[in-house]
Amino acid sequence: MIDLIVSQGRVADRAAWMIEGAARTARALEERYGLKGHYVGQPAPHADDDWSVALPQARETLVAVREAATESIRSDNLTVLINNTCSVSLATLPVVAREHPDAVVLYIDGHGDFNTPATTDTGYLGGMVLSGACGLWDSGHGAGLRPEQAVLVGSRDIDARERELIREAGVRVIPPAEATAQAVLDAVKDAPVWIHIDWDVLEPGSIPADYTVPDGMFPAQIRAIFEAIPAERLIGVELAELNAPADSERAGEAVAVILDMVAPAFDAAAARP
């Protein structure tokens, strides 16, 4: 079975349609798999603010997401989070590390998200998610993920200082061209797996997303990863950063591509007794 948790509170959103993108994805999953999502947070307008402002504003949403994720991860169901931004994972990755200390986090993202308040050039909270979960700075929402448990997949837009932090911490990186199903299986070995995806990991034009950069992965690569990970080892999935087009037809096409990519794992989970 699938537990569906949907973030609807602003968590450092800098684009107008991220919350709607999460809602559209969730509604499509509800319809396809007969689910009833647990919607968390109240929408608020996007803003181009610094992490020091966005983080306290998001506290209520992050606490609620953490509680929902904790309850789900302790069940036998597949935990699925549909997040408006990657920043929501500040609440979830520490829970994964606590409940499954041996888990590997596949952080599938066009960026490293390994900056800290001391290294960020943009002040964007979403660029400091993985480093926060690994304890390089204190988000106020926990840490505990060992850097060697994290695998950056498809990451290519990484700042110079951020790259040095990644190297020093021992986070593994699989570039887009090398992100095959076999490479991912070699990285996770026999460990439980948590998958985080920011849609900017894809080649621009595949899915509407902010912060896209060229030379990305393709939907077929993402689907192949979901096909390869044994269903019994997949703890949970986070899907984030669909900047939903205002045009309903285009938004529906984007969601259909997403559902096709994740279908191998979701179909298996839905079929569990």
Describe what this molecule looks like in 3D.
This protein is of the alpha/beta class and 273 residues long. Helices cover 38% and strands 15% of the residues. It has helices at 18-33, 51-57, 59-73, 89-99, 129-133, 160-169, 181-188, 219-228, 248-270, and strands at 2-7, 38-40, 78-83, 104-108, 150-153, 172-174, 193-198, 234-240. Strands 2-1-3-8-7-4-5-6 form an eight-stranded parallel β-sheet, with helices on both faces. Helix 7 packs across helix 8 (219-228). The N and C termini lie close together (7 Å). The model has no long low-confidence stretch (mean pLDDT 97).
Largest sheet entry? 8 strands, parallel
Structure annotation, total helices = 9
List SSEs in N-to-C order. EHEHHEHEHEHEHEHEH
End-to-end separation in angstroms reads 7 Å
Strand portion: 5-15%
Task: Report the strand count.
Answer: 8
Structural class computed from helices and strand pairing: alpha/beta
Helix content: 25-40%
Strand adjacency order, main sheet: 2-1-3-8-7-4-5-6
Regions with little confidence, pLDDT below 50 for 5+ residues: none
Shape, per Cα inertia axes: globular
Give the radius of gyration: 17 Å
Mean pLDDT: 97
